[in-house]
Amino acid sequence: MSTYEEIIGRKERYAPSVGFDHAVDDEWLFPFQRHAVRWALAGGRRALFMDTGLGKSRMQLRWASAVADHTGGRVIILAPLAVGPQTVREAANVGLSGVVFAQSPAEMGEARIIVTNYDSLEKFAAVEFAGVVLDESSILKSYMGATKLYIIERFKGTPYKLCATATPAPNDHLELGNHAEFLGILSSHQMIARWFINDTSKMGTYRLKGHAVESFWDWVASWAVCAGLPSDLGAFSDAGYVLPPLELHRHIVNVDIVSGAKDGALFRLADMSATNIHAEKRMTTDARADRVAEIVAGKPDEAWLVWCETDYEAVALMSRLPAHAYEVSGSMPASVKSERLLRFASDGGILVTKPKIAGFGMNYQNCANVAFVGTSYSYEAFYQAVRRCWRFGQSRQVNAYVVLAFTDQSTWDVVSGKAADHAEMKAQMFAASRRSQARHSSMLDYHPKCHGRLPTWLVSTHPEPEELSCSA
Question: Positive or negative, the Cα torsion across 293, 296, 300, 304?
Answer without folding.
Answer: negative
